[in-house]
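debug: dumping io for the single-chain case to check the tokenizer round-trip. Nothing else runs in this session.
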Amino acid sequence: MNFKKEFETHLTNFSDNYPEIKRAFEKSKMHNPTMNLTYWHSHIYMLNKMEIEEWSKDTSILDLGCQMAILPHYFKEIGFTDVSATNSKNEAGNTLEDLEHVWSCMNMNVEHLHILPEEEFTLDKKYDIILATQSNVHWNSKKLLVIHDGKLYHDYYVMDKNNKSHTFFVPYNVSELKFLIENIKKYLTPTGKALIYAHPFPYWDDRFKEELDFLQEHTEVGYTDSGAPLFQHSYFIIKGDK
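debug: decoded output
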């Protein structure tokens, strides 16, 4: 298996091979995933770091926060037999109907899971591979406040007068990262791995040295060879307890 070559071919031919799914993408108000190979470069790099070419077809895989389910759909299409996916209905908001239509076209059963800081979440079983790509699982939106016209709001996504979007977030601190890592480890097999492609990854900033030190001590922290800023293409890998 040459994952890079085969996945790039899959993306290039997606519209021709899956016209119904492509139409569902195009109808979505917010979620029309790109098939641009440059965008997927980091995903390919990280999955190769996870030794995807060595996975057996019965490897149990969970996509944590799958959005349009591009990866779990691909895994099923190439013969993996134990593929699951979750997504947050809370974060999907009024785009949930669009997402559910796409998942239906893909024949994907996506379970609801909304992860909050230092609140334990449960999964149905242990997995060999857990993936959270382009993920905001490390955002503590509960602590984010916006003041406008004398009122406090929890909004983290706003559009300015020039129709440009702005997103604000509070990154997990050490305590919250520790809780997240331990929670995920409960659902990894002894030799399992979880890839967290945290986007953006703020911990290279000197203000988050304590958090970066913690991650480097307890996980494998890395970044892709894309040449882009580190905060855009960094990840950490959590390993099961052998």
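debug: round-trip ok. Residues 5 and 44 are 10 Å apart (CA to CA).
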